[in-house]
Amino acid sequence: MADRDVEARLAAQRNTGAFTELPSYTQQTGRDIPTSTGTPFGQASPAAPSTSNEYQSVVNEVNKTIKDAEKTLALAKKSGNKKDIAAAQGIVDLAKGELSDLLKLVSGLGGTGGGSNDQYYTSTGGTGTSSTGKRYIKGQLVSESDFNKFLYGDQKGGGAATAGTGTSAASAEALAARQSAFDILKLQFDEYGLGALVEPLRGLIQEGVSPSEFAVRLRQTEPYKKRFAANAARIGKGLRALSEAEYIGLEDGYQSVMRNYGLPASYYTKGDLGRQEGFEKFIAGDVSAAELEDRVVTAQKRVLDAAPEVTTALKQFYPDIKNGDILAYTLDPDKGLADIRKKITAAEIGGAALGARLGATVGRAEELARYGVTAESARAGYGAIGGGLERGRQLASMYQQPDYTQAIAEEEVFNLPGQTQAGEKRKKIIGLEKAEFGGQTGVTSGALARDRAGSY
Question: What pTM was computed for the model?
Answer without folding.
Answer: 0.47
